[in-house]
Amino acid sequence: MKISIVLGTRPEIIKMSSIIRECEKEGIDYFILHTGQHYSYNMDRIFFEQLELPEGKYNLDVGSGNHGAQTGKMLTEIEKILMKEKPDVVLVEGDTNTVLAGALAATKLHIKVGHVEAGLRSYFREMPEEINRVLTDHCSDYLFAPTEKSRRILINDGISDDKIFVTGNTIVDAVYQNMKIGKEKVNPLNDLNLKRKKYFLVTAHRQENVDDKSRFQGIFTGLELVSNEFGLPIIYPIHPRARKMMNEFGLKADGVEFIEPIDYLSFLQLEANAKLVLTDSGGVQEETCVLKVPCVTLRNNTERPETLEVGSNILAGTNPEKILNTTKEMAQKNINWENPFGDGKAGKKIVEILEQEGYT
Ligand code: UD1
Ligand code: UDP
Asked: Is 46 exposed, middle or buried (0-12, 13-18, 19+ CB in 10 A)?
């Protein structure tokens, strides 16, 4: 019995890491198939090295491209490998084009599909990830829902309850496993000359934000308002898509310090010690909730409503005044919420379920 783990981008590497570690520990027959959707050193290899993950058995080097071209290339190449390797189950995580291609290639070959982080919905179909989530959930045989809420979403979508397993989100595993190691190994606050709780951290890279000049400008103006109001440093490790579009649109933001995307251990330390995080990232909304740091989400919707319900997060969109006002509100926030994403053992639970199903 053999498992294929298909991944291709930064968040998938991070969120699959606890499952990979569990497979290694249990001596399971598995292999990693990397699509190469992300390929820059600081979006890809750095995470394998730092998290001490084994190399992918395959790297498809698919790289960047329009949605159809990128997904199509992956589908063709993943199919060839799955036909050769004949795994019994393919695991995918999240909502990227890699996830859709992996799930579709496998299901057409009658290979079982396990979707880690199933049942998330923003109900915003212009978001490419929303299409990927819906389609992947419907191709999957094992739906690993992070919360009861995501389980109910799947049931409302007509997916049979016996395919759904509420496991928690593997991001909690990643945070718990790497926070302690990070404290000993890295000191980004020192490197960037920052004081604990005396700076803001920003990430923004969503296609619907950074490829749209007026929305991206709205975020930058909002950050300038935050800088003027609080007089604190604002650190933005900028995703390559956002860097490219910022240059193309000729945008600037006074008071914002742009740095290259950074390694996971350092990013976690920066997040945990920030006064507040502003982001449009899915994973960062979850991590801030787990780390008990207030979050302002630079979007009009979220597929992580649990964070709004517990009060760790608020939706600001990209209107500058709204960004400032929500930041002021969240900066006052009582940090007394419970983490809704599980106990940090999601990876172990997922592997145990596959073992019980006879896949290992
Ligand atoms: C992808 C995912 C998104 C996820 C994000 C994680 C889809 C539809 N989008 O978005 O859900 O949140 O990854 O970070 O799958 N680039 C580089 N180096 C890289 C990768 C990308 O320079 O290693 C640049 C290229 O200019 C590329 C652009 O970033 O054109 C976008 O890359 P792409 O893979 O299309 O999507 P992401 O925005 O990274
Ligand atoms: N992250 C990182 N370095 C950075 C920015 C983010 O290691 O410079 C991590 C972050 O901790 C989280 C993940 O990348 O675990 C989120 O990925 P991203 O925002 O690219 O994708 P999304 O979660 O939105 O799909």
From this structure: middle
Tell me the mean pLDDT in the region 333-353: 97
Would you state the pLDDT for residue 25?
A: 96
Ligand 1 mutation target, pool 127, 241, 247, 262, most atoms within 8 A of CB: 241
Residue at token pair 């945070």? 175
Q: Say how far apart CA 124 and CA 133 lie, in whole Å.
A: 11
Q: What is the mean pLDDT of residues 35-44?
A: 98
Model confidence at 360, pLDDT cuts 50, 70, 90, reads low
Q: Please provide the DSSP assignment of 218-274 as one string.
A: HHHHHHHHHHHHH---EEEE--HHHHHHHHHHT---TTEEEE----HHHHHHHHHH-
- Residues 6 or more apart from 223 whose CB is under 8 A from it? 202, 234, 236, 253, 255, 256, 278, 323
- Residues 254-287 pLDDT 10s: 999 999 999 999 999 999 999 999 999 999 999 9
* CA gyration radius, the chain: 20
Ligand 2 center to residue 160 CA distance, Å?
A: 32
CB of 10 within 6 A of ligand 2: the answer is yes
The percent of residues above 70 in pLDDT, for the chain, comes to 100
Percent of the chain with pLDDT over 90: 98
Cα(304)–Cα(322) distance, integer angstroms: 20
Bridge partners for 296 per DSSP: 278, 314
Q: How far apart are CA 132 and CA 137, in angstroms?
A: 8
- Closest by Cα among 117, 286, 48, 270 to 179: 270
Q: Tell which residue, 168, 166, 164, has the closest CA to residue 140.
A: 164
Residue to probe by mutation, ligand 1, list 34, 48, 64, 287, most atoms within 8 Å of CB: 64
359 confidence band (pLDDT: 50, 70, 90): confident
Cβ atoms 281, 301 nearer than 8 A? no
CA of 38 to the centre of ligand 1 (A): 6
Q: Which ligand lies nearest to the CA atom of residue 238 in the structure? A: 2
